[in-house]
Amino acid sequence: MSEQPFSLRTTALKVYSPSLLYGLGLGAVTPVIALSALDRGATLATAALVVTLVGVGSLISNIPAAMLTTKIGERLSMVIAAGWAALGMVLGIIPSNLGVFALGVTMLGMAGGVFNLARQSYLAEAVPLEFRARAMSTLGGVMRIGVFVGPFASTVAMNWLGIAGAYWVGMGAMAIALVVCLWIPDLQSRAAVEEGQSRAGGSMWSIAKDQWRILLGVGLGIICISAVRSTRQIVLPLWGENLGLDAATISLVYGVSGAIDMLIFYPAGKVMDKRGRAWVAVPCMAVMATSLFLLPLTHSVPTMMAVAMLMGFGNGIGSGIVMTLGADYSPVSGRPKFLGLWRLMSDTGAMAGPVLLSLLVAVATLGTGVWAISGISLLGAGLFGYFIPRTNRRRIGDP
């Protein structure tokens, strides 16, 4: 561990600024991906499928991202990811057919898989244990801020350049992020690795076998929280439409929920550092379960707004929890590969949540689907409450 005093402000210049830019670039184009697909001849169903390619790209890139980060390091991996995302944005700018555009969307997801894993691994090694949760929560909060600001920036650009303006904003943000990543220093620990200490930590399969108790314990909780979070973004608009609300009102409710989510990340990280991870992980899932249970019982704008605010609070206090737990349980030797497995579980949950909701809505009702997701959130709370205090964490204090 470095003897120099650690400063989150210094870390902000190194890691948070490219993360803010990356989030801004992604947020700029996310609202218009479906519209861009429709402009290229897609049907409504096909356009919805194209939007999911961001998640698919991230899911399929987790293992390659782990191998790449192990081989070339976190900084260069972030540089490559930002460049790859910028190229994906180019495919959104140029006139093209639907297939080429879909490839560009998939590239954004692939770049996100590499970038997110590399920045998490960087912080896990660069930040002392006593600051880890605050650093990870701030990282999650900064990304949220970027995603929140992105649509406003793209709206300004689209007034001048049409729908392509969103992709110009995205490409510019990714290009600047690339430059910033070139400027940040390599981790000091890599010097020790180059002197003969192994950083690879064996194969992905051997790491999975060694860490199977963690992956089947806390890891299942990660699948639950990821499923709930991804579904949360869908159920609010769907329930608002079910109540007959107009688009502007639904957007307002969603925006207020997102604002609360965005504003409370640092206190949550401080609680995790001072009191322990379970003090945030369990309440996060319990509050989310409560809000999801209450949502189908709302029948007016005020009641839905109250539940949406509660949902935003529950999700916000869990900002950074997935990354923090991944860093906690990752071995120093083979850390990027373990985090690759960790992100694979997270992305699997994120993909499975909306699929489960869709199936339940098809065979039952929207309310039934929302209550089922509430049950998954309760399951996650139970898994976190049971496994986090009891899982072997001896290596958390390792340098």
TrEMBL record:
Membrane protein topology class: Multi-pass membrane protein
A Pfam family reported for this protein in Swiss-Prot or TrEMBL: MFS_1
Protein's name in the database: Major facilitator transporter
Keyword set includes NADP: no
Subcellular localization: Cell membrane
Gene3D superfamilies, A to Z: MFS general substrate transporter like domains
Transmembrane regions: 20-38, 44-64, 76-94, 100-118, 139-160, 166-184, 214-235, 247-266, 278-298, 304-329, 341-364, 370-388
One GO cellular component, as annotated: plasma membrane
UniProt keyword Cell membrane present: yes
GO molecular function, one term: transmembrane transporter activity
Ranges where the Major facilitator superfamily (MFS) profile domain occurs: 11-392
Keywords linked to the UniProt accession: Cell membrane, Membrane, Transmembrane, Transmembrane helix, Transport
Primary location: membrane
